[in-house]
Amino acid sequence: MIERISMTLSPLTSLQVMQDAPVIPVIVLTDVAHAVPMARALVEGGIRMLEVTLRTPQALACIEAIAKAVPEAVVGAGTLRSKSDTQAAANAGARFAVSPGYTSALGAACRDLGLPLLPGVATGGEIMAAQEDGFNAVKFFPALQAGGSAMLKAWSGPFFDVKFCPTGGISLKNAPDFLALPNVLCVGGSWLVPADALAQGDWARITTLAREAVGLRRG
Questions:
Q1: Is the dihedral of CA 41, 189, 156, 179 positive or negative?
Q2: Whether residue 139 lies in the annotated active site
Q3: Residue 132 is a catalytic residue
């Protein structure tokens, strides 16, 4: 079993982010009041790497709240698309970054700020572009629409030195199929933080979902 990283604020690598648990939750928050109890519920269930997507106006405030109040969590920012997104995420306290695609400018911005980046890729050319800039741990997105596990199997030959986090259409049901692949370290999924559980403040349900996700870890 992979040794989990220290909870101190030491620098992370993309591989450490991907290796910490079988699932990185993809989190969409619209209410800052939900951020801290949600993060505590996930941590209680064994999930610490939390990707809060920059899809809502409240996202940065949520990242900041988690970073300040839940030191056991490692909060990151998802849906980064620009240098300004990267700076804003770092200012809010994000410790890693996830993007839906990749540009060299985005990679440079994350490197300059010391943010480990999981760049989004969907084609062989995008993988090669990310590798040219030193990224060998990437996000495969949107996973199901871009070819699913069959595509990852095909990539295992030419991209034998790349590790993937497939995201997009991943569920508790199909996650094991992806996690069984040797080039997959973890998956990204939104099912750990359902909108209705957030709305109802059902933190116990989120903890249960996190525990189920941890149980997907390969031995």
A1: positive
A2: yes
A3: no
